[in-house]
Design brief:
The chain is 43% helix and 16% strand. It is of the alpha/beta class. Helix 1 (9-36) crosses helix 8 (250-268) and helix 4 (97-105) packs parallel to helix 5 (118-124). It is elongated.
Length: 380
């Protein structure tokens, strides 16, 4: 007659019900938080981020001046009809050609492109090209007659630069490479800004950065702040028929599940108890261990390691006898020992920190000298 060794269904449920309940509660809480904050964006140049590279200060400045700021990470919000409204596209993420064409067809009255790439320039700001030059962060004069730049005056700019067509207005550059370009595309105003750090929380208060941001971006009472997070369409084939295979919200649910699994693993994991002393079957005396290591050093001719071990042992005794810190500079150790023993500092330095011996006889001489030095230390 055999006896089953596995757990029954009832026993398994009693063991697993608490971990499953905890995991479910954690996932539920994460989903609730996700839903509650789904309208908010995050990351660099985000209007909700208070980090140094965020733009919460700029969003608050715009709202204080009557601009209604809507932050989004969803492409569908950026392709809604935009007559009489403004759209700012942040530097995060990537957009395919079909996405950019949909944004161009949305008829936004004002479009602000923050550090755009060549593909976005080709579709949304034709004629503006990347120069390949990158400006270091410093204050610059406007150098143009754009009203927003004239009111702002000197601005701290940095980042990629662009060349502008003759019909555009180029500011904050040398006339060829500029960080701010404004042009009209049909009945739409398009601003190309290559210096997003000027509008971040860390630099908004510098020079005329806040004035430039307010007069450049706050032109309409309705502003959609779009931070693209992923490339939603196939840029090679131009196929825009269909949503991405993995919706963006799934990543949050995945992180929530991973966090829940980690919490349960820590909670249910085995904890190490106190260290238990175990009697050795054979007692090995310290002298035998030292002698065995010495034989190994001799067999491998590791005179450098043997000398380093001898010097380290001698230095330990010197530090303890003279009250010298373990991390003391070699010069300080030699000076202290020389003052208390009357030895020549140069000879002491060579003895304690010199080159490794080149022969067994030199190693034996070093060992003898170190032994004599440590005996002098032990003398009252």
């Amino acid at each position: 007659m055999s006896t089953p060794l596995g757990r029954s269904a009832g026993e398994s449920w009693r063991v697993l019900r608490t971990p499953l309940l905890v995991t479910g509660l954690i996932v539920l809480a994460a989903i609730v938080i996700l839903i509650a904050t789904s309208a908010r964006t995050s990351g660099p140049f985000s209007p909700d981020s208070t980090d140094s590279d965020g733009a919460r200060a700029l969003a608050a400045l715009l709202e204080n001046h009557g601009v209604d700021v809507h932050s989004t990470e969803t492409l569908e919000d950026a392709v809604q009809p935009g007559e009489g409204k403004a759209l700012i596209i942040g530097p995060a993420g990537s957009l395919g050609r079909p996405d950019l064409e949909r944004i161009a067809q949305a008829r936004w009255s004002h479009l602000v492109l923050i550090r755009p790439g060549s593909r976005a320039l080709e579709i949304l700001a034709p004629g503006v090209l990347q120069t390949g030059d990158v400006l270091s962060s410093r204050s610059r004069e406007a150098g143009c007659d754009l009203p927003a730049a004239v009111r702002a005056g000197t601005v701290t700019v940095s980042g990629p630069t662009y060349s502008a067509p003759s019909a555009a207005v180029a500011c904050y550059g040398d006339g060829i490479s500029n960080t701010v370009v404004r042009l009209e595309v049909g009945d739409r105003i398009v601003d190309v800004v290559g210096t997003p750090t000027s509008f971040t929380n860390a630099q908004l208060a510098d020079d005329g950065n806040a004035a430039l941001a307010l007069n450049l971006i706050g032109t309409h009472q309705d502003l959609t702040w779009y931070l693209p997070q992923f490339e939603s369409t196939d840029t090679d084939t131009g196929d825009s028929g269909g949503a991405p295979l993995i919706p963006p919200d799934v990543r949050y649910i995945g992180w929530a599940l991973a966090f829940a699994v980690l919490i349960v693993a820590i909670w249910r994991g085995r904890r190490l108890g106190p260290v238990v002393a175990e009697r050795l079957p054979v007692i090995v005396h310290a002298a035998e261990t030292t002698e065995g290591r010495a034989r190994l050093y001799r067999r491998s001719r590791a005179r450098d390691r043997a000398a380093a071990a001898l010097r380290e042992s001698a230095l330990g005794q010197l530090h303890k006898a003279h009250g010298i810190p373990r991390r003391a500079d070699p010069l300080a150790v030699v000076t202290t020992v020389a003052a208390r023993t009357g030895r020549d500092p140069v000879m002491l330095y060579e003895l304690l920190y010199g080159l490794p011996p080149l022969s067994d006889a030199a190693l034996m001489s070093l060992s003898h000298e170190l032994d004599v030095l440590t005996q002098e230390v032990r003398k009252p």
